Amino acid sequence: MGRLIDILLGRTRPVAPDLDQLFALPSAAVTLQAAALLTPTGHGAVCFATVEGAAFEQVHREVRALLDADADRRGAPVELARDDYGYSWLVSRRSPEELPQLVNDLHAVNSSLEANGFGPQLLCSLVGFQDGDGDRRLALVYLYKRGTFYPFAPLPGGSGQRRRDHALELQAKAALADDLRVEQDLGRWFPLWGAPGL
Questions:
Q1: Range of the domain at 176
Q2: Which InterPro entries does this chain map to (predicted)?
């Protein structure tokens, strides 16, 4: 009955998060390399609304211990960062060829936060890509509350200019249609200026 009322009133129910969608990223990376010559940077991050308190600090310590315990981990440990907008990011860095392990890190962070009651604060996860020269960058962004991905490609800009490479974003969207559940509403392709991990 509730579904019928929602339809009649034109309301849509939120899509339940499907964190297993993250495991499609390694095959999407192969497609992205073939279509746009972009390869993983080895950097990824999970963004969430900043939460204070002892319960969150305990979860943060547990997540960090879980990920830092990986004996094969190369590079910096998982770190907590805040962006200019006040959002928190748990950032993971691995070598570029360790994309499956990076995806496991992001899945573990999301799952731990969700299991400990912080699911409503989760916003998105991202994995960074770049071309061989590092001139073109792109993030594949997973929207937690939508269960979809979108590409975000910031252009290098001087003197505080913030521009996006819309052509590259649309190229990635078309190329990844068979690999990922791509967000069709372009209005939800939010810019993540200065996001850690990108």
A1: 16-188
A2: PspAB-like
